[in-house]
């Protein structure tokens, strides 16, 4: 199916606008001005619709190209404001700083933690964890113990509840917050989730976590063209 069917703008313009929004601290109106300098007239609401559609699509399409993670996870949550209330963005990186997975949740409890770990474990590029480092959130140990009891992770998987060992994932939050903070919150959980999927996907690309065989690319732009079947 042609993802760009019925679009009134050239596909490279759409992907460029989406890429700018997800990669840099720019508003929709900032991108309107940048495109106007290139002779393209587009409304900020149109760009918003592009981001909501192609952000999650980008996250979906890069999954099969992700390089394997290590078996050491660093897990933490950061805060994201939705409709004036704080929600929780669960995130994990491996021992080399590569993104393991992420998940937005309205709650911060055992059920949410368990759901996040299940999401991470379901991704084929993630190794089964040998060790999982978490902070002092009391929800993590029981969530992981339940997963052990249900044989979804090995009994020998070690759980380290030590805050200073999690500096790597806390530092990794900074890129996401750099993009989301200027947005001053999201209007709905659904729009927050769709935009965060795109922002996280762009962060993964920026960190060089993808590999592509038989079609070498030299830049994120070229790789995104390949993902959306725009390569020459």
From TrEMBL:
This is IS6 family transposase. Gene3D superfamilies: Ribonuclease H-like superfamily/Ribonuclease H. InterPro entries: DDE_dom, Integrase_cat-core, IS_Transposase, RNaseH-like_sf, RNaseH_sf, Transpos_IS6. The keyword DNA-binding applies. Keywords: DNA recombination, DNA-binding, Transposition. It holds the Pfam family DDE_Tnp_IS240. It comes from the Bacteria. Involved in the transposition of the insertion sequence. Residues 64-224 form the Integrase catalytic domain.
